[in-house]
TrEMBL record:
Keywords: Repeat. It comes from Trifolium pratense. The lineage of its organism: Eukaryota, Viridiplantae, Streptophyta, Embryophyta, Tracheophyta. This is Disease resistance rpp13-like protein 2-like. Pfam families: LRR_14 (PF23598). Residues 77-248 form the Disease resistance R13L4/SHOC-2-like LRR domain.
């Protein structure tokens, strides 16, 4: 184990704290940076398996420094065995082309880096298992991403309408099990190929699609037999996706976020959602009626409803014999009272959490939860 504190002097342009613990190296920069070409920037004891950078300075300097350190580390073969590189919060790091030489790299985080383009060298990292692009400004990913056959987790910058090319040169990556932040819109290339990610387990997507395309999306998702976590956020959704979604036999978590459902009625029929354990409704302003048939969602344990101000009391909740937690956030008083009455009379094993009560003429809002059982 090794800890290095390097101060500024005539030969070094920066001050940093470098730590080497169990083959992990972390660089902590101050506002003066580091002479990235200095051999003092690298561990003298072994080759690091993990490399982490901490530098929240503004401007282009941090990105330049990190680029130089990576280039020097790769050229000196210090980083060739590295399995983890974490660049989170480094402003637009300049990734060298030689990054493709990191044949053992398993994890690469570019979260909060605000990168505008995905460097082509990243798609050459054929051993990479996790690629985190959350909170970047990348708006295009080539189809070569699907050639990364060992990629298991792909996190995209959902706030951007990223164009993710859908048709690979060969077969689709069958190892991908987490796809987070996908935004489908218009004639999105991947829409027609989504079902080919047949081992996908977790999917979070937003979409802005017309009626026929929405139906296609529901059909494609319905073919993802390994899916157990699905989060949807939509603009102008008009069709009820439940008939297709409830066929997903391994689905355990289903979240509807703002405007992902704009119909007045939603129904869960008998036999549907056999493995579903968690169901969330957030900000579904137009939803007025939710029916639950007896035999639907026989494994549900947690139901959360937030800011669904027009939703009537769902009497079908009494059919959910396995439910143990109901969370209410910013819901009307009458809805809360009806839920509480149902729990008291017919669902004694259920806990209720109430957060941020909706303001009305006869009540004040509270930020603390009330919990009852």
């Amino acid at each position: 184990r090794e800890i290095i504190i390097q101060n500024r002097n005539k030969t070094n342009h920066g001050r940093y704290l470098g730590t080497h613990l169990d083959r992990q190296i972390a660089y902590h920069f101050d506002d003066h940076g580091l002479d990235a070409n200095s051999t003092q920037a690298f561990s003298k004891k072994g080759i690091p398996m993990s490399v982490l950078f901490f530098d929240k300075r503004e401007g282009s300097k941090p990105g330049e420094y990190i680029g130089k350190i990576l280039s020097t580390g790769i050229a000196s073969e210090k980083f060739l065995e590295t399995r983890v590189i974490d660049l989170e919060c480094i402003f637009r790091p300049q990734l060298p082309k030689t990054l493709r030489k990191l044949n053992n790299l398993k994890y690469l985080s570019l979260r909060w880096t605000y990168l505008e383009e995905l460097p082509p060298c990243i798609c050459k990292l054929l051993e990479l298992e996790t690629l985190d692009l959350k909170h970047t400004c990348i708006n295009y990913i080539p189809s070569s991403i699907w050639e990364m056959k060992k990629l298991q987790k792909l996190y995209l910058p959902q706030n951007y309408r990223i164009k993710l090319e859908g048709k690979p040169r060969g077969n689709f990556n069958e190892n991908l099990h987490t796809l987070w932040g996908l935004f489908l819109y218009g004639s999105y290339p991947l829409l027609g190929y989504l079902h080919k990610l047949k081992n996908l387990q977790k999917l979070k997507l937003a979409f802005q699609l017309k009626g026929p395309e929405q139906k296609t999306l529901a059909e494609k998702i319905g073919k993802l037999e390994q899916l157990h976590s699905l989060t949807l956020k939509s603009v102008d959704e008009t069709d009820d996706p439940m008939p297709e979604l409830q066929k997903l036999l391994k689905l355990k978590s289903l979240c509807f976020y703002a405007d992902s459902f704009t119909e007045i009625k939603m129904g869960c029929t008998s036999g549907g959602f056999q493995q579903l354990q968690v169901l969330r409704f957030w900000n579904l302003d137009k939803l007025k009626e939710w029916t639950v048939d007896e035999g639907a969602m026989p494994s549900l344990m947690e139901f959360e409803v937030r800011s669904c101000i027009n939703l009537a009391f769902p009497t079908g909740l009494k059919h959910l014999k396995t439910i143990r937690m109901i969370k209410l956030r910013k819901m009307p008083n009458q809805f809360r009272k009806d839920i509480q009455l149902l729990v008291n009379n017919e669902m004694s094993l259920v806990n209720i959490e109430i957060y941020e009560e909706l303001k009305t003429k006869d009540t004040n809002s509270g930020s603390q939860p009330s919990i009852s059982n």
